[in-house]
Amino acid sequence: MYTHTPQSSQPITHHHLAVCGSTNNELMQSLAQQKIDSNQPYLLTASQQTAGRGQRARTWQSPIGNIYLSLYHPLSVPISGLLSLVVGFHLTRLPIIQQINRQRRAVNLPLIGVKWANDIGYYAAEEISDNNNPERNSFRKLAGILIEPVWVDNQITGVIVGVGINIEAAPVLCEVTKEGMEYQAISLTQIIDETEQAHIAQTNIAQTNITQAYSDKDNKAQNKPTQYQARQSTLALPRPKAEDLYLPVSATILRAIHQFISFKQQAYSLPNFINDYHSVNVLAGRQVQITQQPIKKAHPSALEAAKPLVLQGEVIGLNQDGSLQLKTGSEDQIIKIYTGTIRLI
User: Fold this and answer.
1) Of the candidates 36, 108, 270, 298, which lies 20 to 30 Å from 213 by C-alpha distance?
2) Is the pLDDT higher at 14 or at 219?
3) Nearest to residue 94, comparing CAs of 171, 41, 167, 193?
4) Angstrom distance (rounded) from CA 302 to CA 296
5) Which residue, among 128, 95, 146, 156, has the nearest Cα to 283 in the 3D structure?
């Protein structure tokens, strides 16, 4: 266990475990047993989880080589769905993600962004149009976020922000392990490989064109490939290990929490965030189908009779409560979406 001070934030204690069931559970239990100070932020990381959790009690597969991180922060303002979106937005601002996105933009690859409400990743552009194969329409998920409030005497005293990021290993998901969700896991290493290969392919095409253009001139064709090889070498992306990113990710979460708190203190803060979020919203402008499961009733027969609600429309943005704006129907009605399984159509 040790203490570090992220840039522009208060000191934070960091404890690392080789193996644990769930970092969120472990941190929650430590707070309940008063093993840690609930008035101070606290970071817990693990090399491996044996019972990792995602949203709605879904399983989070946790092979070695990835980030499994939970950060506790005392909090006096009410928690809403906005917090997960703010954390997701700030994670896309990690230097390594920004560096990857700059290179992906240069070769017209889809950028890493936020999929409402708690996923980080992207839809591959060439796959979106294939509506006959749902598997090819699936989201490429790099990271997930799990927000859980901490209660003391029926009052929220803090929040635990759990973040899982696939760094070296992307779990291979089947219909059972996807648990009804339409996505495939992808690792940071795979994204870097994809990005670099696209740059190499683009460079090779340019190199071939230049060689052909100068083939009738003395030695110029031989000099051009050397220039492009030098350019290609400058595009190599760093390949961080999980432990290299613990501190940057924790500092990012702290910034996100502080911005979330500012929504109650500064009138302009929330509108500014919603405007900024649009730039990383991978669903913006997409036609989607949203399936909402029926709410459980007291009488079992009522649930059996109920059917999922299926909505279709265009995602146009966020509301100030964190819900998704969906434009539906011929009259362009805008409705609020608070929950549901989303797929592109």
Assistant:
1) 108
2) 14
3) 167
4) 8
5) 128
